[in-house]
Amino acid sequence: MAERGFQVARLPGFATTAVLVFIALYLPIFTLVAYSFNASQSVAVWGGFSFGWYEKAWANTQVKEATVRSLIIAVSASGIATTVAALAALGTTRRARFKGQTAIYVMINQPLMVPEIVTAVALLIFFAQIKVATGYQGLGYLILAHSAFCIPFAYLPIRARLEGMDLSLETAAADLYASSWQTFRHVTLPLLLPGIIAGAMLAFVISLDDVVITEFVKSGGQDTLPTYMLGQLRRQLTPEINAISTGLLALTVVLLTAFFLLTRKKE
Amino acid sequence: MNAVNAVEARNTVKAFGQGDSAVRALDDVSVEIRKGEFFTLLGPSGCGKTTLLRLIAGFEMPTSGSILLEGQDITHLPPNRRPVNTVFQSYALFPHLTVAQNIGFGLTMQGRPAREVKETTDRMLALVKLEAMAGRKTSQLSGGQQQRVALARALAPQPKVLLLDEPLSALDLKLRKEMQIELKRLQTETGITFVFVTHDQEEALTMSDRIGVMSAGKLQQVGSAKDIYTRPVNRFVASFIGETNFLPATTVPGGVRLATGDVIELADQAGRSGAVTVTIRPEQLRLCDPAEAGALAATVRTLVYFGTDTHCHLELADGTEVVARLQSPADGEAGLAQGQRVGLRPVPGAARVVED
Ligand SMILES: Nc1ncnc2c1ncn2[C@@H]1O[C@H](COP(=O)(O)OP(=O)(O)OP(=O)(O)O)[C@@H](O)[C@H]1O
Ligand SMILES: [Mg+2]
Predict the structure, then answer these.
(1) Of A142, A258, B242, B277, which has the fewest CB atoms closer than 10 Å, so is most exposed?
(2) Which of A168, A177, A267 has its CB closest to that of B90?
(3) ipTM of the complex
């Protein structure tokens, strides 16, 4: 056989290590899902199969309210973040390199780099002042905070899509009598759409999942699903948590699968 | 023919970059392209052909000078307001649209009624023989088919001028020959002015009504294929189009004296005197008896057989190398041997003085 150079897959113990890593990744999740069907009160001792915890969670008004709140925040925040991210991506890629471009990339991606707890504390203090000044206590703070940290997640797939796009298509559209708005509407936007949808879904999942910033920014009675679950852990632990987690997991898996299908290279 | 030109560039300069690093892609280019002609811009890579096309299309603004379309100054008109369309080298077909939608794009953007868009699209599909492909995505087409879609798309809005930037360079040789004929047919059928860019001299010679030869951002010569081949104005044009021999010489009354001392009669000295360069095409040199009066003495160096012709590399008395293209005799034997002394005689009128 011909010399192939260094191949990780040929190292001794590669297969065993790989299997162990996958077990470490997925076993806890399997356990979580399995115990959501536990008939007993325990999250650790199996007592037979049942849908009881799902029924219980479904009937729990606190869970329902937190779910609705989570969805409102995630939809609004991912919408805002995706719009801002798409504009930022259009502004930073469809042109010759300019001075300060890297600085702008870093600034857009700031939420990926600054520790979340720092942002959370900063927002807590900042919003506290605004709350005092305006008296407004609504979900707006959470939506704004989520929008901000979702921007880089929406920005990256959109920018990737734009960078792979042939600039000559827009030149061709202009050559064929399209105004700049028509060019955007009929050429840029349709070609960008998979990137925008992917960005929006990623932002949605990230928002849905957030605990740290939400915990700091929320006012009383503004629990989202993750912060509600965190609160439950402090009281008593039942497989109801498993059922809620499994529901959240299912939603995330669906969205991430769609994300993967959309960003995969076509043709 | 109408006196107004389809396209005119007047003293156009296009510089990229600033200060010392500035590149003059076009250096004071003036050209008049007539209505309905097949005009080719020919030149080596980087000579500014694409830049001139982009100025005509409106993708770039000239640094100075102006562009006229049918006598109107369009220098500052954006591309979407110019009745000029481009066939891009990369085709630049819209991947999210079907073949028919691609072809109808220009008309749709102009806000033409749907009926008219459909009729014109169908006519264009027929013109490029792609009726069966109307509903396909462009990625499902072969290179030659994509090429035709690009052509149909650019022709559909019936532009005053069609610009083609090396449209055939991505095709293989056989398809290229077919498309050359096809392009010529489309140009004749539509009567639209074509401005065609290529760096392939054979393509330029066979397709064009007139050719503009460019080098280093300057237009060197404009003329028919025959003009340019038989009466090149300078050394660059003479060597870029076809093969040729250059001989150093000095002017004498009624002719030139070569470095070998031989005198060649010349009607036209291109208004020059003193040291000049003379060019003679290889097919315009004949071999003769060395003793014949007026023959240049030469020694055969190498013979290269090309089927119908044989290229005979010779050395003149002063050491200058020249090539003569001889018709191969029926038996394939030129009857020449290396080192043989022969006489060389240019066909009358073949020798020309060119600028360096
Ligand atoms: N946008 C640009 N920025 C800087 N320099 C440029 C730009 N476009 C062209 N040039 C320079 O201008 C010169 C002419 O370029 P142009 O593309 O017109 O050449 P061309 O004749 O079309 O060559 P080719 O046959 O390789 O396509 C080149 O030296 C090129 O590097
Ligand atoms: Mg070019």
Answers:
(1) A258
(2) A168
(3) 0.80
